[in-house]
Design goal:
By secondary structure, the chain is α+β, with helices and mostly antiparallel strands. It contains 11 helices and 15 strands. The strands form 2 sheets. Strands 8-7-6-5-4-3-15-14-13-12-11-10-9 form a 13-stranded antiparallel β-sheet. The N terminus is likely disordered.
């Protein structure tokens, strides 16, 4: 059987091992909110707990630290789930996004493969029997997962750095298309009716030239004179999880995010390697590593200069981003591949795509930067869109006001008076 034919049975891997309801240290318990507490999620309540920060709730919450590696000391799915037969060794925190990748690729939901047993009469939530093998599609999914793992292990196969996944063949449908539609619109001997003439090959700039133009585009020397940024606007996500938020950054290593939700005001503060999350009267201290990672994420999202060049970066050609021609700069490691898209005309950063590697397949994250405006001599995007592999985890931030070098009191970033719990 061909790979495409075999991949057609890959349909039931949707949540084959169960949706992860607990994402540890470097993750967010959004899955639990969706599968176990739909009423609270629909109301827009931020689900904050001992392993979550406000920033992580809205961006890159489940990044892996390497292929088939999670947080140091994290348990694997075969240790935390029942009836795991194929993905043994996969960190528990990666399962949720991996299954969402499969669901999106096949255009299916978890009920296609998994068994439901009504609703809990007390809580009103769906009862899932994730470990059940009652549906035959589940066993087919296991075979297809084994096939993909076999392809990945075959070093003789060259896919030009493109991982084979369920989306390779399915493209959002249960049954992949194995034959071209007839009659043919074009063939190896004749062009199609709307084919354009081959484009003229152009000379691309170097990575150094791209970054030099980028720095000049966002403000040049004015950027280094930025001591504070204050951004006010709103965050929008599915299920009416929309709320105003205010973000304050102070050079070199302080930031504050305030989200005003229907359930109350949530604040996250990072000051150097220390951080806190305040939800009403509850105060939680962030671990030093979590505080540093939160600061890094805030820089990538909100700072004027969102990326700096490194020796490992290389030019990846040109692609279209929202009808704009963009130079692609790529940075690949064993853990992930990052691609930055710079407008070929303006030099501004339009997009960042991250492919986080896992045991079975990569899962993507995308950041889009739009609506750049001048703010006191620097260019700042007034719209930031984060796209995850699941619509629930995606969001858009739209700013109505951004101030540069506004007076910011140090007391904003001080340790809260309430003792951490």
């Amino acid at each position: 059987m061909s790979v495409k034919t075999k991949m057609s049975s890959f349909i039931c891997v949707v949540l084959c091992l169960g949706v992860v309801c607990l994402i540890t240290n470097r993750s967010v318990k959004v899955a639990a909110a969706r599968e176990e507490q739909p009423t609270r999620v629909a109301a827009g309540a931020p689900v904050l707990n001992s392993s979550q920060s406000l920033l992580r709730m809205s961006y890159a919450a489940t990044k892996s630290s390497g292929p088939a590696q999670g947080v140091l000391g994290e348990k694997t799915v075969d240790q935390t789930r029942k009836n795991i037969q194929v993905l043994k060794g996969l960190p528990d925190s990666q399962l949720f996004l991996l299954m969402n990748f499969v669901a999106t690729s096949l255009g299916q939901q978890c009920s296609f493969c998994h068994v439901q047993q009504g609703k809990d009469p007390k809580k009103g939530f769906t009862n899932w029997v994730w470990e059940s093998d009652e549906k035959p599609e589940k066993e087919t999914a296991r075979r297809m997962m084994q096939m993909v793992l076999s392809i990945k292990a075959n070093n003789k196969v060259d896919f030009r750095e493109k991982d084979v996944t369920c989306y390779t063949c399915h493209r959002g449908q249960k049954q992949p298309t194995g034959l071209p539609p007839m009659p043919l619109a074009r063939s190896g001997h004749e062009p199609g009716p709307n084919d354009t003439a081959p484009s003229v090959r152009i000379t691309l700039p170097s990575v150094e030239q791209i970054f030099s133009k980028y720095i000049e585009a966002v403000g040049g020397s004015a950027v280094t004179g930025t001591k504070t940024l204050v951004l006010k606007g709103k965050r929008e996500a599915s299920q009416d999880r929309n709320w105003p938020n205010e973000i304050t950054l102070a050079d070199p290593d302080k930031f504050l995010i305030i989200a005003i939700t229907p359930q109350g005001t949530v604040r996250q503060v990072v000051n150097g390697d220390k951080g806190w999350v305040m939800n009403g009267a509850n105060v939680r201290t962030l671990a030093p590593a979590a505080a540093v990672e939160a600061k890094r994420s805030s820089n990538e999202l909100f700072n004027i200069v969102k990326v700096k060049p490194s020796q490992s970066m290389r030019l990846g050609g040109m692609q279209k981003v929202r009808e704009r021609d963009a130079y692609v700069v790529e940075n690949a490691t064993d853990a992930k591949t990052e691609r930055y898209y710079f407008d070929s005309q303006t030099g501004l950063l339009l997009r960042k795509m991250t492919l986080n590697k896992t045991l079975l397949m990569p899962f993507p994250e995308q950041l889009d930067f739009q609506d750049y405006r001048d703010v006191d001599g620097v260019k700042v995007p007034f719209t930031i869109r984060y796209s995850a592999i699941d619509t629930y985890d995606s969001w858009t931030r739209t700013f109505t006001e951004i101030k540069r070098n506004a007076l910011v009191e140090d007391t904003l970033f001080a340790m809260p008076a309430t003792p951490p719990k």
